[in-house]
Amino acid sequence: MVAHPRAQGGAHRLRALNAPQPVAVEADAEGRPAALTLRGRRLRVAQVQDAWRIDDEWWHGQPVSRLYWRLVLEEGRVVTVFADLSRQGWSVQSY
Amino acid sequence: MDVACLLIPTFALACELAEHPELAREPVAMAVVDGRTVLEASPSAARCGVRAGQRLAEALACCPHLLTVEARPAFYQRQFVALLDALERVSPAVEPGPLGVAYADLRGLARLSVGLARQPNPPAPFPMWEGGAWSTSVSTAMSPLPVLGRGRGRGPAPGLPTPQDALVQALLACAPAAFRPRLGVGPGKFPAMVAAHRAGPGGVSALPAEGAAAALASVSVELLPVSEDVKRRLRLLGLDGLGALAALPKAAVAAQFGPTGARAWELAQGRDPEPVRPRPRSETIVVHVSFDAPIGSRETILAAAEQLIGRALRTLARQQRAARRAVLWAATERGQSWERVVTFKEALSGRARLWTALKPVLEQAVFPGPVAELALELAALVPQSGRQGVLWVDGRRRQREHLLEALRQLKARYGHCPVGRVVEVEPWSRIPERRAALIAFEP
Min CA distance, B252 vs chain A (Å)? Predict the structure, then answer.
């Protein structure tokens, strides 16, 4: 008989892709992002392209409530950040 | 109390002192030296300023009477594996940590240790977090575990210890007393490890789930399982204790330190959801030969290695299997060791091809001295497979077969397949991280 390899099964090795990454964002008085810090560099927001809100999984114990912002930074890069309205804090994530 | 942590501080030094107990009785500073760097230092050496990672010359300047011992990494690893084997006779789920640290899952084992509980001797309490402070009494006797959160004196009736205590004492007995092991019990791996640090040599300590955050408040961030750079940054920010870290908002810690900071924050709260993962066991074929007189001639070593291959292949042929990896190991009469791991491009079962792969390794090996013992281990055993030729070449199919074979080799090399596959989970979801996932590719 071959000994049980005790190898970890495949199910719990499922890793979510595109997980949000915490980021430091400076917001103005209206709550709009004015600057953010990416990889140690502080970058000013040149333009807000779009903003939208999602409220989902409210039937779970931990509903998802986020306010997304698509931003154009001063160097020309486009990033998407969101403010987590239920747990507080900002994160960057592709949408 | 789900997890136990068996801790042997300065494990390499403990192994050396167990072999030379007369040194333990001497009031000398002792350091295990790896090359020109101090690997571990005894408490008396540490008091003189000797510390791990220090250059030997600097350590001797701090402590002129320092006694040094040449490190034997392979010997320490074998001692650690023997310790893990002993723990697995008590708990089936044992996870090795750094050298000298092992975790055991205690869930569901209390009923199995009823027989162990039939011991005489009156119980004595051991340190645990109660009422906002750590108790100071230390006991190595069989003792009942106080009921969590309900204070001392309201545990089981005195007299016979409970199966839970017998289980804990059985875990402690897995390490030789000369190693001065410490055992910690807690709701997770990190709380159990902190409790083990709090226990005295040969003692047991417990950290209950209720009030774990308060118990961990005074613990230094040095115990966190994070990189030295993160610890340095925590100290720079004035966060010397887990209490200061736990008092901060989680989002702020995560923004500063990323996922590592978020996990450290959870640990500071006393929450460690990571389960105990048993070490993977794989079948191997091990053959070895000892020499009456140590051998310095390379030709003789090559002849002995060829003989070992023949013996290993006889067992391999009986099982009709092939090996993807081989480990060559040699030890000198002074206890120094040499080891090389060779992963083959494909599973091998033939003598000629195996010798072709291993001979260059032995010819170029630099042994630390005359060889007293030589061993060969064949691992990652797989069924023998033939090569089926095809009359009409299907390029894409052959390419896929080559790819799968290469992935099997990677898995044998690293223990897991480093290639993943993207699968759609909820492509319609408005939450981006729900749409797709990465799953390990199993070749």
Answer: 8
Q: Kindly report the CA angle at B314 between B311 and B319, in degrees rounded to 5?
A: 135
B361-383 burial, b if ≥16 CB within 10 A, otherwise e? Answer: ebeebebeebbbebbbbbbbbee
Any idea what the Cα angle at residue B237 is, between residues B133 and B54, rounded to 5°?
85
Q: Angle at which helices B228-236 and B259-268 pack, to 10 degrees?
A: 70
> Tokens for A61?
């114990």
Q: Is this complex scored with an ipTM above 0.90?
A: no
Fill in the amino acid letter for A56. Answer: D
Angle at which helix B250-257 crosses helix B228-236, to 10 degrees, equals 120
Q: What are the pLDDT digits (tens) for B132-162?
A: 444 433 333 333 333 333 333 333 434 444 5
pLDDT tens, residue by residue, A11-29: 446 777 898 999 999 998 8
Using CA coordinates, name the residue in chain A closest to B415: A7
- Read out DSSP for A64-90? EEEEEEEEEETTS-EEEEEEETTT--E
Chain B residue nearest residue A37, CA to CA:
B255
A6 contacts in chain B (CB < 8 Å): 278-281
Give the count of Cβ contacts less than 8 A between chain A and B: 77
Measure CB to CB from residue A6 to each of B262, B280, B437 and give the nearest one.
Answer: B280
Q: Is A63 an 8 Å CB contact of chain B? A: no
> Cβ of B62: how many Cβ atoms within 10 Å?
16
